[in-house]
Specification:
With 874 residues, the chain is of the alpha/beta class. The protein is built from 24 helices and 32 strands. The strands form six sheets. The protein has a 17-stranded parallel sheet that branches. Strands 2-3-4-1-5 form a five-stranded parallel sheet, sandwiched between helices. α2 (26-53) runs parallel beside α4 (97-121) and α12 crosses α13 (329-341). The protein starts with a helix and ends in a 9-residue tail after the last strand.
Length: 874
C-alpha cells in the first residue's frame, strides 16, 4: 500500500514538471517523460490487478517505496530550482545541470530495476480472500437497511427503566463491555429516544477516550449550554468547569459520557454535575469493569453488554447485506456459518458484511465459502479472532482506497472528522486518481468516502440537511489496527506529548507523514527532517507549545489551533505546500493575512481559523492572492476583503471553488469570468455603498457552477431597499440572513430554482409588510430542508403539492398560530422542529405527528427546543 501511495505522489510531481515551459537541459524532458510513463504504467497495473482480484499487491515492498520516495524528493527539488532559475552548469552543488542529469538517470534505473524484479519473480502475494471476478468500485453499493439495532431491544428496555424511574437522585448508569460489542450504539439509541421524549430539560453527549483531554470535554459540555466559542479562549479550565456546573444547575439533564478509560477522569468530571434532586441521569460507557463499578451510583445497576447469540448474529448479518430482502436459500447455511464465526461481536459482523457487499457478484456461493474459510476461528480468544477479522477487512480494501483509509488514523481517537476537510487533504496528498479526467477531484474523493462507508469501515457521525455526509469517524478497534499498519509500512507516524517526545526526527524512521497529538502545555517541538511531507497537529487551545519547522519539502501543514511566532517566515520556505490550516491571531499573524501564502505556486487550500482577533476584525488579503495559480479553497472564519483582480491585470479563469467569508463581494464582469469554477460562497454585505446595485448583483445568476450560497446583510441603512435579483439555477443550498425581502415576489424567485434542496431564511428584513404567503404550484420541487423564522408572517397557506420533497421543517420564533395542515400531508416529511414558538404552533405540530403515525410513518418526529443555547448556522 505504501508503495502504491508513493508512486501516486511521484506521478503527480512528474506530471507537474511535464507542464513546465523550460528545462535546464533539453534531454531532461525526454527522461522525465520516460520515468512518468513507467510510473503511470506501474500504477495502472497495480490498480487493474487489485480491481480484478480484490486483493493486496506488494511490489518488493519497502524497496519500491524507497525508490519512489527518493525519486519524488529529487523531483521536488528539481521543480523548486527550475522555478527559481537556480541551475548553474559549473556548480558542484547537488543540483547543478550535471547532477540533475545524474539524478534523473538514477531514478529511472531504480524504478526500472524494482519493477522488472517484481514482474520477473511475480512477487505479488494476494489476500487469500480474493474474489476472482472484476469489481467496479466507481459507484458505491447502496443497500436499504431497516432502521433497527439487532439484539438491543432488551438492553434498551433495561437502560430506559433506570433512566425514567421515579428516583429524584442523580443516577450514574454504566454500560460496560469489550470494544465493538455495541456500547456506543446502545447509548446512542437511548440518547436519541430521550431527546424525543422531552423528559429531560437538556441532553448532551461527550466522548472522553483513552487520552483524557479535560478542556476539550468541558468545551464539549458547554456547547450544549451556552454560547461559548468567544469566551473559551480566555477562560481557565476551572472557570469553564464553573460555567458547566452553573449551566446544568436547576435543569433535569441527561448526559452520555462515552468511552471512559480510568477512574481519575471520572473523579475529575463528576464535579461539574450538580446533584440537585430533580431526576438527572448520567450514562457512562466503558470497556473496564472496575471503572464502571467505581462510577456507578449505589442504587443503579451495572449494565453488562452480552455477545449476540447465533440467531441474533445471523439476523444482523442478513440485515446489513440484504436490507429488507431475504437471503437466498442457497446462501443461508454458509451465511449462518459466517455469522457464527464472528463470535457474537456486532462490529466484526458489520465489517464482514461490508466485505461481502463490496464484491461484484454478492450472490456467488464460492465467494461466501471463501470468506467463511478465512474467518474461521483458530484464535485462542475472541479478542484476537475479532482482530484477525478486522485486519482482513483492511487488507481486502482495493488499492485506491487504502491510503485514504489509513490516512484517517492520523486524527485522534473518537474524532469527528470533517468530511470536506478530509477530502481536501486527500486531494493535496495526491491520493485520488480519477478515471474521468474531467471529473472534479473533490467529487472523486466524495465517491471514495461513500465507498468506505458502504464497506462499514468508517462511521457516519453527522449528515447535513441535504443528507450528505458532514462528519465521520473510525471505530477504536479498527483505528488501532490500521494505525499499527500505517506505522509498519512507514506511511504515517504518530507522536504524542504523553510519550515524552520533544523532537520529531525522521532520520532513523523515514516517515513521510507525522501526526502529533499533544495535550500538555509549554512543550517545544522540533520538526527537522527534510523528507517529511505532511504534518498534522492536534491540540487543545491555549496550550502554549512552541513549534519549530524546517522541513523544506512539506506539502501539508494542518495546525488550526497552533500559534507560530514566525508563521510568515515558516510559510515562505515551503515551496511545495499544497494545504495549510493555521491559527489567525495577533501572535502568529501580527500584520494580518500572511503575504508569503500568496507566493506559493502549488497551494490549493488555505484555512485560517480566528482565535484572538476581535469579533469585528476585518481581514485584508493582498492583491497577490490572484497570482496563486492553483488555489482552490480560501476559507476563513474572519471576514475578509478581496482586492480587485484588475489591479494585477488578472483575467484568466481561476480554479477557486470555495470562498468563505468575503465582505462586500462585487459580482463584476471580470469576477464572473474568473470564478467560473466557484461552487461555494459565503458573503457579507456591510451596505457601505450607496446603492444595492453597486454590488452588481444582477450578475449573480451567471455563476453557473455555484451550489452553496450564504448571504448576510449586517445593516440596512435604507429600509426601502429590496432584494430583486435572481440566483444561479445550479444552487443546491441557499442561506439568507438579514436580507431585505418581499415574501411573495422573492419566494417566487427562490421557488423556481430547479436544484434547491436546502433553504435557510432567518431574521430577514421584510419590505412591503407582507403578512400572508401562499407558495405557487410547481415550485420548491426538490426542497428537502426549510428553516426559517417566517419574519412578519401571520398566515402561511400550504398544500402538499407546494413542497413535494420536504423532509425537515424547522421554525424559530415564528409568529404564525399553527402549522398549515397541508404540511402534515407531505409523504416525505420526517421532522418538524420548533424553537421558541408559541404553544398553539406546538399543538398543531403534535396533531400532525399523530396523523403521520396513524398513517404508518412511525419515523416522523416533532422536536420542541426552547434552550437558551446559541443557535448556530451551518
Amino acid at each position: 500500500m505504501a508503495a502504491y501511495a508513493s508512486l501516486l505522489a511521484l506521478a503527480r510531481t512528474l506530471h507537474q514538471i511535464l507542464t513546465l515551459d523550460r528545462y535546464p537541459n533539453p534531454l531532461d524532458k525526454e527522461k522525465i517523460v520516460s520515468l512518468f510513463q513507467k510510473v503511470d504504467s506501474s500504477l495502472n497495473f497495480l490498480q487493474d490487478y487489485s480491481d480484478q482480484h480484490g486483493g493486496t499487491v506488494d511490489l518488493v515492498g519497502n524497496e519500491m517505496k524507497s525508490a519512489a520516495y527518493e525519486a519524488q524528493d529529487f523531483m521536488d527539488s528539481y521543480l523548486f530550482l527550475v522555478s527559481r532559475n537556480d541551475f548553474d552548469s559549473s556548480s558542484s552543488e547537488p543540483f547543478s545541470v550535471a547532477s540533475v542529469d545524474q539524478g534523473l538517470n538514477l531514478a529511472l534505473e531504480k524504478i526500472d530495476f524494482f519493477w522488472e524484479e517484481a514482474m520477473k519473480n511475480k512477487k505479488i502475494p494476494l489476500s487469500s480472500m480474493a474474489d476472482s471476478s472484476p469489481v467496479d468500485h466507481s459507484s458505491a453499493i447502496k443497500i436499504p437497511v431497516k432502521k433497527m439495532v439487532v439484539g438491543f431491544d432488551d438492553d434498551i428496555d433495561a437502560i430506559n427503566e433506570q433512566l425514567y424511574e421515579d428516583s429524584a437522585k442523580l443516577q450514574i448508569i454504566p454500560i460496560v463491555g469489550m470494544g465493538g460489542i455495541g456500547k456506543t450504539t446502545l447509548a446512542r439509541r437511548v440518547y436519541q429516544s430521550a431527546i424525543l421524549s422531552r423528559h429531560f430539560d437538556i441532553c448532551g453527549w461527550i466522548t472522553v477516550s483513552a487520552e483524557y483531554r479535560k478542556r476539550q470535554v468541558l468545551s464539549g459540555l458547554l456547547h450544549y449550554l451556552v454560547e461559548a466559542d468567544d469566551v473559551q479562549c480566555h477562560q481557565s479550565d476551572a472557570q469553564l468547569a464553573t460555567l458547566v456546573y452553573q449551566g446544568f444547575m436547576g435543569r433535569r439533564y441527561l448526559v452520555v459520557i462515552d468511552d471512559v478509560w480510568d477512574t481519575k477522569a471520572w473523579d475529575d468530571l463528576k464535579r461539574v454535575f450538580p446533584e440537585d434532586g430533580i431526576g438527572s441521569r448520567i450514562l457512562i460507557t466503558t470497556r473496564l469493569s472496575d471503572v464502571a463499578i467505581y462510577a456507578r451510583s449505589s442504587s443503579s445497576q451495572l449494565h453488562l453488554m452480552k455477545f449476540l447469540n447465533e440467531d441474533r448474529s445471523w439476523e444482523l448479518l442478513q440485515e446489513r447485506i440484504f436490507g429488507l430482502e431475504s437471503c437466498p436459500p442457497e446462501l443461508v447455511e454458509i451465511g449462518k456459518k459466517i455469522a457464527y464465526s464472528c463470535g457474537g461481536l456486532p462490529l466484526t459482523i458489520v465489517v464482514v458484511a461490508g466485505i461481502l457487499i463490496s464484491t461484484s457478484n454478492i450472490m456467488r456461493q464460492e465467494l461466501w465459502e471463501n470468506v467463511s474459510k478465512n474467518i474461521s476461528s483458530t484464535e485462542p480468544t475472541i479478542e484476537s479472532h475479532c482482530s484477525k477479522i478486522l485486519c482482513l477487512s483492511c487488507d481486502r480494501l482495493p488499492l485506491h482506497l487504502k491510503p485514504c483509509f489509513l490516512y484517517m488514523t492520523a486524527f485522534p481517537e473518537d474524532s469527528e472528522i470533517e468530511v470536506s476537510k478530509l477530502i481536501k487533504m486527500w486531494v493535496a496528498e495526491g491520493f485520488l486518481k480519477p478515471s474521468d479526467r474531467s471529473k472534479c477531484m473533490e467529487d472523486v474523493g466524495g465517491g471514495y468516502l461513500e465507498d468506505l462507508v458502504n464497506r462499514s469501515l468508517i462511521l457516519v457521525r453527522k449528515k447535513g440537511p441535504d443528507g450528505k455526509l458532514e462528519t465521520v469517524g473510525v471505530h477504536d478497534l479498527l483505528r488501532e489496527i490500521c494505525a499499527t499498519k500505517a506505522e509498519e509500512e512507514g506511511f504515517l507516524h504518530h507522536v504524542s506529548s504523553n510519550r515524552n517526545v520533544h523532537k520529531v526526527d525522521a532520520t532513523q524512521n523515514p516517515y513521510r507523514r507525522i501526526s502529533i497529538h499533544y495535550t500538555q502545555a509549554l512543550w517545544e517541538w522540533r520538526i527537522q527532517e527534510s523528507s517529511i511531507h505532511s504534518v498534522l497537529l492536534f491540540s487543545e487551545r491555549n496550550l502554549g507549545s512552541t513549534f519549530f519547522l524546517s522541513s523544506r519539502r512539506l506539502s501539508i501543514l494542518d495546525a488550526p489551533e497552533v500559534t507560530w511566532p514566525n508563521l510568515s517566515d515558516v510559510i515562505s520556505a515551503l515551496f511545495n505546500l499544497r494545504y495549510i490550516a493555521f491559527a489567525l491571531n495577533d501572535s502568529s499573524c501580527p500584520h494580518g493575512f500572511p503575504t508569503s501564502i500568496t507566493k506559493l505556486p502549488n497551494l490549493q487550500t488555505v484555512i485560517a481559523h480566528r482565535t484572538y482577533f476581535r469579533r469585528d476584525y476585518l481581514l485584508q488579503i493582498q492583491c497577490e492572492i490572484w497570482e496563486t495559480p492553483k488555489l482552490r479553497h480560501l476559507i476563513t472564519d474572519t471576514p475578509f476583503r478581496l482586492p480587485s483582480p484588475s489591479s494585477r491585470g488578472i483575467v484568466q479563469e481561476s480554479d477557486i471553488q470555495t470562498l468563505e467569508t468575503v465582505v462586500d463581494f462585487k459580482f463584476t464582469e471580470e469576477i464572473i469570468k474568473i470564478f467560473v469554477n466557484l461552487k461555494k460562497l459565503k458573503v457579507i454585505f456591510t451596505m457601505c455603498l450607496d446603492n444595492w446595485d453597486d454590488y452588481n448583483l444582477n450578475n449573480l445568476f451567471r455563476l453557473n457552477n455555484l451550489e452553496e450560497l450564504k448571504v448576510s446583510v449586517d445593516d440596512l441603512p435604507n429600509p426601502s431597499i429590496t432584494w430583486n435579483h435572481t440566483f444561479p439555477i445550479s444552487l443546491k443550498k441557499l442561506t439568507l440572513e438579514g436580507v431585505p425581502w418581499h415574501w411573495d415576489n422573492n419566494m417566487t424567485i427562490i421557488g423556481s430554482l430547479p436544484n434547491l434542496e436546502v433553504l435557510q431564511m432567518m431574521n430577514i428584513k421584510v419590505t412591503g409588510f407582507s403578512e400572508h404567503w401562499t407558495p405557487m404550484e410547481d415550485q420548491f420541487l426538490r426542497l428537502k430542508y426549510f428553516r426559517s423564522s417566517l419574519d412578519h408572517l401571520v398566515k402561511w397557506e400550504v398544500e402538499k403539492e407546494h413542497f413535494p420533497s420536504l423532509e425537515s421543517l424547522i421554525l424559530r420564533r415564528a409568529q404564525i398560530d399553527e402549522i398549515p395542515s397541508g404540511i402534515g400531508e407531505i409523504d416525505s416529511l420526517q421532522l418538524i422542529e420548533l424553537q421558541f414558538c408559541k404553544e398553539s404552533l406546538v399543538d398543531s405540530a403534535n396533531l400532525i405527528q399523530q396523523q403521520q403515525h396513524e398513517n404508518g410513518n412511525l419515523a416522523f418526529q416533532v422536536r420542541v427546543n426552547n434552550s437558551d443555547k446559541h443557535d448556530f448556522w451551518f
